[in-house]
Amino acid sequence: MEERTVLHSTFVIERSYPVTPERVFAAFSDPGKKRRWFAEGAGRDVEEFTMDFRVGGNSFMRSRFKPGSPFPGNTLDSHIHFQDIVPNQRLVYAYTMSMDGRRFSASLATFMFVATATGTDLIFTDQGAFFEGSDGPQMREQGWRKLLENLAAHLASQPEIEPAHAAPQG
Question: Which residue ranges form the domains of the chain, and what is each CATH number?
């Protein structure tokens, strides 16, 4: 009989972004914005992305790894269930990850958005359970660091103030 194992781990990542908490929070709460920095990437194709951003709502992402990636041809699923939302201040969700239908982790993610004189400090805490020797905490932390770097690039590429619509000519 195969031994069933679980490894627990908690890590914290702190990042500063030179934009308001409202802009950082919007990158998490707006499905189009989140898809751009969270789901899309050079190493995989997004096959499905849905998001119902409310307490009790769910989000789902399925992507397929491209050739040349660490897991070419494999599918990666991420299921999120939103637990707590305080706009522009806090987001808490539970999430699971699966590879080719085999669940390999379950986690609780907490994001704190703290206004500063220069923008926003994001404090992210991940409390995870990793099953049967899966990717483990080091790879998960590395993955989140990359995602939060993607978030920084996304925020830098977006204008601070949305352009006003031109008044109708008449």
Answer: 6-157 (3.30.530.20)
